[in-house]
Design brief:
By secondary structure, the protein is an alpha+beta fold. It has ten helices and 27 strands.
């Protein structure tokens, strides 16, 4: 879930993360942070056994205030060891020397202690070199949690970061990496202002885009009623156009359904992994099965992730038992999260294909990887993003915001870590850059594959 405003997140930017969101839940609960968080389903065993202070795990890819998740947890942190621990005093002497010198000797503007502390926290996390671990200001912390819940203040567009030369995902804006609108929520501010899928964003409030994707997405987001001006290149236009958008509260509809191939194929698109989207997804699949559908398409393209519990629930619609994913924490132990019995489409006579692309990330990859590993579905499309880590959110005391921190790796049921690699589709489908609007080669190939399996005993044996 990041997305979803993350590297390639919703600018709503309506993300991801990321991973994260891609987002989700754990352990013996600590007192809940003072934020509104969705109630979770049964939490992963790994989170119950470790990280007791954490309590909401997410899987998505978040960047800035975006969503691109692949596992997250939420908790409230209260200092349990005030001061510097005795064993660390010598190591921390340079830190305290610097802090004390600034407090006593800095000769320019007055020093705000809270600003220094927040900067120190930011520096520690940045030193990890992990794009999915990040300090969040109080505003960004709240905005990110709202994104994970599917409601946020923004423009209502999904805007992944994409390379111009290869159309692959990227994380640092520059000459070959830009923000491209992949979808716009109907009725949202971006839609009302005339933003279209395929628009390339080249500036925000008159400033060209370079550097952090997270920073750019954060600038597009903002409080309800405020205005952002996007510089957009569209089609073959030689000069950008400016579109002024008044931000508003956006509610992301994360599950979309339709009937294809003359009513013989059920199609369910999942755009995020929140608790509500998992319930809506289960309802949609159940309705397709009740209507007699024996061919289902699950579209996870552009889905940046979300809650781990939501990923488990979605995969369990097709898996009656078995491992959905393994979680490996700092102690190196690998703990399995299993499917929950009772899913609507676990009958092997129901043929399933899953559509993936370069912005299928985190929680989406957990689901796609589990169905592929168990031979329950074919993956069709292009290589997925490759986010194999789980983050946790912690809220800091004294209104100091919070942070997300990578606390575990996740592995497929075959114990494969797909980080920076992604999932390889069973049936690769290349989508030309000049594909006309309304054409979908990946969906067309999925329909061909399902048509070829009519009357077959197994999907894999007929879909070469």
């Amino acid at each position: 879930m990041l997305p979803s405003d993350l590297p390639a997140a919703d600018a709503g930017v309506d993300a991801p993360a990321p991973d994260a969101t891609a987002a989700y839940a754990p352990g013996a609960e600590a007192p809940r942070a003072q934020v509104n968080t969705p109630a979770s389903t049964a939490e992963p065993k790994a989170r119950r056994r470790r990280h007791l202070p954490w309590f909401i795990a997410v899987v998505a890819i978040l960047a800035g205030s975006g969503l691109f998740l692949s596992g997250f947890a939420l908790g409230a942190l209260r200092a349990s060891t005030p001061g510097t621990p005795l064993a660390d005093r010598q190591a921390f002497e340079p830190f305290w020397d610097t802090y004390n010198s600034i407090q006593s000797d800095y000769a320019l503007d007055p020093v705000d202690r809270k600003t220094l502390i927040e900067g120190a926290i930011r520096g520690m996390i940045n030193a990890l070199g992990d794009p999915f671990s990040q300090y969040l200001s109080p505003t960004d912390f709240q905005t990110t949690l709202e994104s994970l819940a599917g409601t946020f203040s923004g423009i209502g567009a999904t805007i992944p970061a994409t390379t111009i030369s290869t159309n692959a995902s990227c994380t640092t804006l520059g000459s070959d990496c830009t923000l491209v609108v992949s979808s716009v929520i109907q009725g949202a501010p971006a839609d009302r202002a005339g933003v279209l899928p395929g628009d390339r964003i080249v500036s925000i409030d008159g400033i060209s885009l370079v550097g952090s994707v997270a920073d750019a997405v954060a600038k597009i987001r903002g409080p309800k009623g405020t205005t952002v001006v996007l510089g957009i290149e569209r089609g073959g236009s030689s000069s950008p156009i400016s579109i002024s958008i008044v931000r508003d509260i956006v509610v992301q509809k994360e599950v979309q359904t339709r009937s294809l191939a003359g009513g013989t194929v059920g199609y369910v698109q999942l755009l995020g992994f929140s608790d509500s989207s998992a319930r809506d997804f289960a309802t949609a699949v159940k309705a397709d099965v009740a209507a007699g559908q024996t061919h289902l398409i699950v579209d996870l393209r552009g889905n940046l992730g979300g809650y781990i519990t939501a990923a488990q629930a979605v995969a369990s619609q097709f898996l009656d038992s078995g491992v959905v994913f393994y979680e490996q924490g700092a102690d190196g132990a690998q703990v399995a999260t299993d499917a929950t019995p009772g899913g609507a489409a676990t009958d092997p006579r129901i043929k399933v294909v899953v559509l993936i692309d370069g912005n299928t990330a985190s929680a989406s990859e957990i689901v796609a990887g589990a169905l592929q590993a168990h031979g329950r579905a074919l993956l069709i499309g292009s290589q997925s993003y490759g986010k194999g880590t789980i983050q946790a959110f912690q809220q800091l005391s004294d209104d100091s915001g919070g942070f997300r921190l990578t606390i575990a790796k996740w592995l497929t049921p075959n114990k494969v870590w797909i980080h920076h690699v992604g999932l390889t589709p069973d049936i690769p489908v290349a989508v030309p850059a000049n594909t006309p609007a309304g054409m979908d080669p990946v969906l067309d190939r999925a329909l061909q594959v399902l048509a070829a399996t009519t009357g077959a005993t197994g999907l894999l044996e007929r879909a070469a």
